[in-house]
Design a protein that fits this description.
This protein is α+β, with helices and mostly antiparallel strands. Among the domains are: 61-126, 2-Layer Sandwich (wza like fold), CATH 3.30.1950.10; 131-212, Outer membrane lipoprotein wza domain like (Outer membrane lipoprotein wza fold like), CATH 3.10.560.10. It has helices at residues 2-26, 100-111, 152-158, 189-193; strands at residues 61-66, 74-78, 84-87, 91-94, 120-126, 131-136, 142-145, 171-176, 182-187, 209-212. The protein has a 5-stranded mixed beta sheet with strand order 7-6-10-8-9, with helices on one face. The longest helix is centred in the N-terminal third of the chain and has 25 residues, at 2-26.
């Protein structure tokens, strides 16, 4: 009797020891609710943050990313002077004059001919289409990218400041409006440095030309 009891006890204990590793691996009884699934990954984003009202223009650089499909994605794509871009699989598409979201919608629409429910992101890598120009008596007269809000005084600083002996009383901002007409604004840098008439330090628009006599 005692021998039989000991044998049965040993068998039962060995079965329990065999079951313990399986329990340890699951971490919970089989009747426990399953763990919540991990959140789905989203397409990675990179690049610059476009200013309000931004539309894609010539010389801008884009990334068109297809989620989990590197071969169909297109990176560092320049917008040509004709406003088009060359994309992998989709070939040529018109981008200039569209917001990034509008262009993304066009890419998804075109990609729908080849893929089922494509997930696409359009990232702006560089904004080169929005430029302002400064000429005359500054250290570095040139065209400057308008990738973020910029005032007249800030552009003068970017251009290295006024040349020696230049007071900047007669600085002129020339702007071509959407209707083709030209508007001009005056900026007295000498007054601005003395904290007078600060309202004249207007925010620049793409295409503005600043002339420093």
């Amino acid at each position: 009797m005692n021998a039989m009891f000991s044998l049965r006890t040993a068998v039962a204990l060995s079965g329990l020891l065999v079951a313990l590793p399986a329990y340890a691996q699951t971490g919970a009884p089989s009747g426990a609710p399953p763990a919540a699934p991990a959140a789905a990954a989203q397409p990675a984003t990179s690049g610059v943050t476009p200013p309000p009202g931004y539309v894609i223009g010539p010389d801008d650089v884009l990334d068109v990313i297809f989620w989990k499909d590197e071969q169909s994605s297109s990176k560092d794509v320049p917008v040509r002077p004709d406003g088009k871009v060359s994309l992998t699989v989709l070939n040529e598409m018109h981008a200039a004059g569209l917001t990034p979201e509008q262009f993304r919608a066009e890419v998804i629409k075109e990609a729908g001919k080849y893929f089922t429910d494509p997930t696409v992101s359009v990232n702006i890598k560089a904004i080169n289409s929005r430029r302002v120009y400064i000429t005359g008596q500054v250290t570095k007269p040139n065209a400057y990218a308008l990738g973020q809000p910029l005032t007249v005084s800030q552009l003068i600083a970017m251009a290295g400041g006024l040349q020696e002996y230049t007071k900047g009383k007669g600085i002129l901002i020339v702007r071509t409006n959407a209707d083709g007409n030209t508007t001009s604004f005056k900026f007295n840098y000498d007054e601005f440095r003395r904290a007078k008439n600060l309202k004249q330090d207007i925010q620049l628009m793409p295409g503005d030309r600043i002339i420093v006599p």
